[in-house]
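Hi all, posting the design record for the shared folder.

TITLE: backbone redesign
STEP: 1 of 1
STRUCTURE INPUT:
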């Protein structure tokens, strides 16, 4: 059974994952409009992953006797200066998600909610993977320079080859 505090915080996280999904959707669309089909495909895939993160939380809240609330999601940024700025803002958002997950884990510990604590460990591991992934992508962009069109072409091809991890599927 969830305490009111944990239930509210989990619903806040639902909103954050929903926002993340829309953020990636927006980033994907921007890439699409710039002819970066590989980046767009990668980011569309990531939007789906974030939706899964949201649904996994949603189901958990209801299974644990709480009430999952369909989130009120604000509009994400629609335009980006360049690919480097896009991935920097994506990483920044992932870092904010990690912080939020960590706070949630702290709260569950304080509330002695071992079930939610255990459930959230999946998100702790997932955030580690996501931070690593986006740091790697940014490293590559920085190596080539954001304004080099041949570099952009290469990065676009690189990202086209990255498939969503099967480990990211909710169980
Ligand atoms: Fe997520
Ligand atoms: Fe994420």
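Okay, here is what came back for every position:
SEQUENCE:
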């Amino acid at each position: 059974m969830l305490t009111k505090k944990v239930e509210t915080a989990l619903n806040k996280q639902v909103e954050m994952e929903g926002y993340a999904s829309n953020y990636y959707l927006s980033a994907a669309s921007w890439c699409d409009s710039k002819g970066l089909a590989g980046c767009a495909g990668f980011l569309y895939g990531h939007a789906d992953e974030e939706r899964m993160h949201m649904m996994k939380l949603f189901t958990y809240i209801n299974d644990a006797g709480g009430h999952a609330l369909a989130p009120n999601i604000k509009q994400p940024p629609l335009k980006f200066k360049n690919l480097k700025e896009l991935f920097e803002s994506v990483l920044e958002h992932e870092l904010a998600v990690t912080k939020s997950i960590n706070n949630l884990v702290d709260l569950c510990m304080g509330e002695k909610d071992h079930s939610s604590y255990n459930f959230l460990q999946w998100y702790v591991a997932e955030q580690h993977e996501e931070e690593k992934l986006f740091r790697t992508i940014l490293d590559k962009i920085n190596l080539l320079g954001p304004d080099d069109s041949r570099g952009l072409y290469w990065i676009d091809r690189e990202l086209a080859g990255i498939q969503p991890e099967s480990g990211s599927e909710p169980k």
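COMMENT: Confidence is low (pLDDT under 50) at residues 166-171.
Let me know if anyone wants the other runs.
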